[in-house]
Amino acid sequence: MMLTMLAPQTMAETVQSKPAQAAAAAVKIDFKGAADNYLKQNADQYGFKANLSDLKHVSTTKTDVASYVRYQQTVEGSDVFYHQVTVTLDAKGTPVLIVSDYVPNLTGLKTKSKLNENDAEGKALGHNKVKKTKELVSRIFGYYVEGSKAVPAYKVTAVDDESLATWETFVSAEDGTILKNKDVNRKVDGTGKVFLPNPLESAGTKVGFADNNDADSTALTNQLKTVTLRGLDGSGYLRGQYVRTNQSGFNSFSATNTFNYTRNSKHFENVMVYYHIDELQRYIQSLGFTNINNRQIYVNVNGTTADNSFYSPSTKQLTFGTGGVDDAEDAGIIAHEYGHSIHDNQVPGFGNTLQGGAMGEGFGDYLGAIWEDKLAPSSFGTACVGEWDAVTYDSSSNPPCLRRLDNNKVMPGSWKGQVHADGEIWSQGAYEMAQQLGVDVATKIILQSHFSLTPSSGFNNGAAAIKAADALLNGGANATTITAIWAARGISTL
Q1: What is the pLDDT of residue 24?
Q2: Reported pTM
Q3: pLDDT at position 366, please?
Q4: What CA–CA distance (Å, rounded) separates 411 from 326?
Q5: Separation between Cα atoms, residue 311 and residue 392, nearest integer Å
Q6: Where are the domains of the chain?
Q7: Average pLDDT over residues 195-205
């Protein structure tokens, strides 16, 4: 983009009579003409054609102090998408600012398109997996700039009825290639109250905390923290880039995007899952991954009355249970279930063997544990996941735990053939990587390793993939440590 400030002209002061002033005021200034003349006079400086033949006048906007003349760059009469020029003129018609996106000397022009607008629409909707749209906003032919070339293309804009995303997709009219694609909906931030990560771990004690069938208590309410809910779609519902709450017909709405509830409200669990899943996905992207479960996931926080939650590979949705402590009230449980979604996204069908199933449960526990540690970095809850959820079934432990990540289980002696119990073998190896290498380093290596796996991979495959991922990411700097950690669990990295 070129932006040029122009020096104001120096004019001799004159004293005019009132009739003369009135006559001067009556003179109509041709702002577009003044802008045209200036651009022609300075065509070489900006790379314009001398006659401005590829600049189409779009509008002239007048205000009390200035006028703004806008032009659209074109090729063979069609718009060059998003490439414009504006001229700002003061009240006397003198140009004071030029802003230009004009691309001079565009090359490689092709004027015969092979796709029609219906073909382009199909390509765009297919790319974004839009199954249903009530409103096709537009299908416009024009030119898309790639470097110094103008590529004939269609700009297809469509609203996805399911996600409510508004996709703007540029499709090459020559071969159907997707040139650019983005959701143009304006995202907004909201606020809400959540547990970070659960009331026991943030308080550092289990004393004074009980479920009491979802009843509020002073102790529980005191552990609520105000957070920013990022990426909301502006509809007033808890829907955003990475999460869509869908609570069996019970959705949370706020015209001001303010979602402050206590835990006895059905809305509270919606806020919990939105915040923690959204932040988890943002954390994954902060590690450098934009292709791991980077999607909007549907979540039903009251989908079953059982004390159980699950991810469905067929529907790609998460469901949380309300038995005991509602599962969606505990960030560790939320992260665990999201871990299953991550595995399925990276390796569709993962967990086809008992060892693979145990790896899936172990990774979910790992993700839950490190997420809890990040949100409440204290010794209470270390190597433990789901403290709040566990108060109804683990009264003897302090803290109570869904599962631990330091039971020193090993292969083959500790193997039970039950994925949750055997998952503690895998989760401890992963958790010890986080302790010794740092959480971010370990998590990045583990996520990278998943791409190497197959649906039927087992423990040895997983450990070998972790070692290979470290070699790719860090030149093998952690190879000795990784080998030792997994050897202690009876698992080979070879």
Answers
A1: 47
A2: 0.73
A3: 98
A4: 34
A5: 23
A6: 2-100, 117-183, 188-488
A7: 97
Within 10 angstroms of residue 159's Cβ, the number of other Cβ atoms is: 17
Which residues are CB-contacts of 129 (< 8 A; sequence separation ≥ 6)?
Answer: none
Widest CA span in the chain: 106
pLDDT of residue 247: 63
For 128-144, the pLDDT digits (tens) are 888 887 666 689 999 99
**Distant-in-sequence, close-in-space partners of 287: CB < 8 Å, separation ≥ 6:** 440, 443, 444, 447
Decide if 117-183 and 188-488 have a common fold: no
Query: In this predicted model, what pLDDT tens digit does every residue of 67-84 receive, in sequence order?
Result: 999 999 999 899 999 999
**Which pLDDT value is given to residue 132?**
80
pLDDT, tens only, 368-406: 999 999 999 888 999 999 999 999 999 999 999 999 999
State the architecture of 188-488 in CATH terms.
Roll (3.10)
Of 389, 386, 395, 380, which Cα lies nearest the Cα of 367? 386
Q: What are the start-end ranges of the H helices in 181-294?
A: 199-203, 218-221, 266-286
117-183 maps to CATH 2.40.37.10:
no
Q: Which string of b and e fits 30-49 if b means at least 16 CB within 10 Å?
A: ebbebbbebbeeebeeeebe
Q: Which residues contact 268 (CB under 8 A, 6 or more apart)?
A: 193, 261, 262, 329
Selection from 431, 429, 464 nearest residue 450 by Cα: 464
pLDDT over threshold 90, residue 467: yes
Tell me the C-alpha distance between 287 and 293, whole Å. Answer: 13
How far apart CA 148 and CA 63 sit, in angstroms, is 36
